[in-house]
Design a protein that fits this description.
The chain is mostly helical. It contains 12 helices and no strands.
């Protein structure tokens, strides 16, 4: 692959990564404005065109009025108000369609032009396929709020979120490999503490984001507007009362998921502090050190944003900033992981430079 073609691939993949981030943040806006259930059908092609004319709008509005949300929550909503939430969800789906086309069209162009060899196309085809699957997951999530309950299933919402994160990580990782011309994995570092800790930190962050998805799906952010206490206690009295199985309260009860999410944040902070000192001790490159410092600072900012979001009863702007910061944390954590996996620490560089080459007999 020529340097010029490589730069084209890099730009394409980073733009795709940016589009994924925009979709995730805008998806948060859809949720916070309670617009996600406004379009009750999934029409990937014909759905590109919104209702045109009064009759079409009335027909669309009538469908919405037959949903649980339309019947029980927004039964007094006017058609003008309905248009507002419709267009929020419509724009979200439109961005998703555009992003999907921006993946598929350049991908097949690069394949048929030979810029991406077919024998090396698996990861790129996987990204394209996962975009389509993510669209299905979005509808799978929405459909759970159109049958009985006027809210989407929080597990489906979280799966939709986690798939977006996986897509973002895969796209970013592939772009970074192009930037660095496909560097080898530093096998000797696999057993090192930074290697293990970077993976552990990323895993802990994903767990925290998972519970953030639960909080969003169950609207658990409104359970308590005090911090650090909940209902005047460090451990609320009703933490384990909604379900018989104690663990189910921690994944399906609003009080439980809120409690876990607010305190597990400090596990993320602890991992970030540990990662900072470990990478500093191992004298990694300036890129690694800067990224770890940014990560640690962002964790502190994110915890502050979380507390403010609680105190002010989940205002849309604060909740969106909180979600966007969490997404940025994930991006930085993936970058740190990439750098540690592919960059040898100084003592490895010295050993590689001074190693005596093996000669055959």
């Amino acid at each position: 692959m020529s340097e010029q073609d490589n730069k084209k691939i890099i730009r394409w993949l980073f733009v795709v990564s940016g589009l994924i981030m925009i979709m995730v943040v805008f998806g948060g806006f859809v949720r916070l404005t309670r617009s996600g259930l406004s379009i009750v059908e999934w029409n990937p092609v014909s759905g590109v065109v919104p209702p045109i004319g009064q009759a079409a709008w009335e027909a669309e509005y009538a469908k919405y009025q037959q949903t649980p949300e339309g019947m029980y929550i927004n039964h007094q909503m006017t058609i003008t108000e309905y248009k507002e939430i419709f267009y929020v969800e419509y724009i979200h789906r439109l961005i998703a369609r555009f992003a999907g086309l921006f993946v598929v069209i350049p991908l097949f162009y690069y394949l048929f032009k030979g810029i991406i060899p077919w024998r090396k196309s698996f990861v790129y085809l996987t990204i394209g396929a996962l975009f389509g699957f993510q669209g299905f997951l979005g509808w799978y999530m929405v459909s759970s709020g159109l049958i009985e309950n006027p809210a989407v299933n929080h597990f489906r919402l979280t799966i939709h979120l986690l798939m977006a994160l996986f897509l973002l990580a895969l796209t970013m990782w592939t772009a970074l490999r192009h930037v660095h011309h496909f560097p080898p994995v530093i096998n000797k570092g696999r057993g090192s503490l930074p290697y293990i800790l970077s993976a552990l930190t990323l895993t802990i962050l994903v767990i925290q984001i998972t519970w953030g998805g639960f909080v969003a799906g169950l609207k658990a952010g409104w359970i308590s507007n005090t911090w650090p206490l909940m209902a005047g206690r460090w451990i609320p009295n009703n933490l384990f009362t909604q379900f018989d199985a104690w663990w189910q309260n921690l994944i399906s009860a609003p009080v439980g998921v809120h409690f876990v999410h607010r305190w597990f944040a400090f596990v993320v902070l602890g991992a970030a502090i540990w990662l900072f000192f470990i990478t500093k001790r191992h004298a990694y490159s300036a890129n690694v050190h800067k990224a770890v410092i940014y990560f640690l600072g962002l964790v502190a900012v994110q915890i502050t944003l979380g507390v403010l979001t609680i105190w002010f009863s989940v205002p849309v702007y604060l909740a969106l900033i909180h979600q966007a910061t969490g997404l940025l944390l994930f991006v930085v954590a993936v970058y740190i992981r990439y750098e540690i996996v592919h960059t040898p620490i100084p003592e490895q560089v010295v050993e590689q430079a001074t190693a005596v080459p093996q000669t055959g007999d």
